[in-house]
Specification:
Blueprint lengths: L5 H18 L3 E8 L2 E9 L12 E2 L3 H15 L24 H5 L22 H6 L18 H15 L3 H13 L16 E3 L6 E3 L15 E2 L1 H11 L9 H7 L4 E2 L7 E3 L4 E5 L2 E10 L2 E8 L4 E7 L8 H13 L14 H4 L3 E5 L2 E7 L5 E5 L7 E5 L4 E4 L8 E7 L2 E7 L2 E3 L21
Antiparallel strand pairs: 1-2, 1-12, 3-6, 4-5, 7-8, 8-9, 9-10, 10-11, 11-12, 13-14, 14-15, 15-16, 16-17, 17-18, 18-19, 19-20
Length: about 450
């Protein structure tokens, strides 16, 4: 399938072919999504003697976590939980880690141990939720909750049980009803169905394979159980990029993509939101998730700013380079760059036009611009200062959308001769620096500028 030019299609196919040969991957499928549709897909290698197709299933590992997180956020939006709730509020009797919040579990900032107190859960049959919860001890929390990023598979086992208890059904049934079915992801399942790839380990020093075990992870399944296809994962990529299909409010999805914790400190190239991994690569800010289970690797990344996503699924335990999906994005940037939308005039009310132009916060010059739908933009003229956009919130008030004033109120204050000043959460903006005719807090020296 291709909806891109011949040059882009050739470059994407070659990049996938190089990776499959270099990393010795038994099989790999990949796709590029733009504006909600798959514009390119490719495959290399063999599954049961034939090249895999967009309908071939692979394990997606921890991408399962992002699917579970969507249902948790639906519960939040329904008012059934708050992200600040301690998990023990929803799992009564939890013997340990009960003070960790739902939001901290979603963002891996709760300090929980990375793995459950069982055998290596990825390679052995799982235990029931009751047994998992009963086995948690004093060492379940390894770091002060909220202090740092510490990836926890156990945390998503707890979130899966939270979903099950609120919905009164197994977490996977809730997931199917509330996310997979509405998005048309009918080939995403907890257990494999044909045709599916077999998971392999590739010998490090010889071109031979070792089949990897596969099982039902039971209580830990919400951390990495699901199987999917490149066609279904493309639908999820479109969802993450903003085509929510009514499953989530767009504002909730945007909240999931916001960084909660940074994984690599000052570098800030990777972090985590609410159930979503985040990355900054080559000027792009990406959201999605990687997946790893014995015999399988997968990744889905999207850049919501231009509604572009990339993904791959492979049946190998290790070896696929982390740059494969981002290199695919680079191919799109080189061969299929976005064209800006044509500028068109937008009518603006006279009262809004009267607000445009320079304003001053003390001596600092700002400029007010009118945006579509009666929104406003207040930005420093010199590039140094606090910039924010505002959306209408009343006859003479606007609500901060981003930047320093996000969530704060901008109020247009009027006097006998019209607008006297702007009040932005107690900060006064005037038409000239420290206008003596405006109620500047602290007053203005009566002798003026000198």
């Amino acid at each position: 399938m291709t909806g891109v030019g011949e040059g882009a299609a050739r470059a994407l196919t070659r990049r996938l072919a190089v990776e499959q040969a270099r990393a010795r991957i038994p099989s790999v499928v990949a796709a590029v999504v733009r504006d909600g549709a798959t514009v390119w897909s490719g495959a290399r290698g063999f599954v049961d003697g034939a090249e895999p197709t967009p309908a071939t299933q692979y394990r997606i590992g921890s991408i399962t976590k992002s699917l579970v997180a969507v249902v948790v956020m639906r519960l939040r939006d329904e008012g059934l939980l708050d992200l600040l709730d301690p998990i023990a509020k929803h799992l009564p009797g939890l013997p340990a880690a009960g003070e960790v919040t739902v939001g901290q579990l979603l963002s891996h900032s709760g300090g929980l141990t990375a793995e459950p107190p069982t055998e290596w859960w990825e390679r052995t049959p799982g235990v029931a939720p009751e047994a998992l919860l009963a086995g948690l001890g004093d060492d379940t929390v390894r770091h002060r909750p909220g202090r740092r990023f510490h990836y926890s598979n156990l945390g998503f086992g707890l979130l899966g049980e939270l979903v099950a208890r609120h919905r009164g059904m197994p977490w996977e049934r809730a997931l199917h009803a509330e996310l997979l079915a509405p998005l048309g992801m009918s080939d995403t399942t907890t257990r494999p169905r044909p045709p599916h790839a077999t998971g392999y380990a590739v010998h490090p020093w010889a071109d031979v394979l070792l089949p990897e075990p596969e099982h039902d992870a039971a209580a830990m399944a919400p951390a990495g159980q699901m199987w999917s296809t490149s066609a279904d994962l493309a639908k999820f990529a479109a969802f993450l990029a903003g085509d929510t299909g009514g499953v989530l409010a767009r504002a909730t999805l945007a909240e999931m993509r916001e960084p909660i914790v940074v994984e690599d400190g000052d570098a800030w190239t990777s972090g985590y939101g609410l159930g979503l991994q985040l990355a900054r690569v080559r000027g792009r800010r990406l959201a999605g998730h990687t997946g790893s289970m014995p015999g399988f690797l997968a990744t889905v990344w999207v850049d919501s700013s231009d509604a572009t996503g990339v993904l791959f699924l492979a049946n190998t335990t290790a070896g696929v380079g982390r740059s494969l999906p981002t290199d695919m994005l680079a191919v799109m940037d080189e061969h299929e760059p976005r064209l800006p939308e044509p500028w068109r005039p937008v009518p603006a009310d006279p009262d809004l036009l009267a607000l445009t132009g320079p304003w001053y916060w003390g001596p600092t010059a700002y400029v007010m611009r009118v945006l579509p739908d009666r929104a406003l933009s207040l930005t420093p003229i010199g590039g140094v200062g606090r910039a924010s956009r505002f959306v209408p919130d009343g006859p003479d008030t606007w609500l901060g959308l981003d930047g320093y004033y996000a969530g704060e109120t901008l109020r247009v204050v009027k006097g006998g001769d019209g607008v006297t000043h702007l009040d932005v959460n107690t900060f006064v903006f005037t038409r000239r620096p420290y206008d003596p005719g405006a109620p500047v807090p602290g007053g203005v020296d009566p002798d003026g500028w000198r």
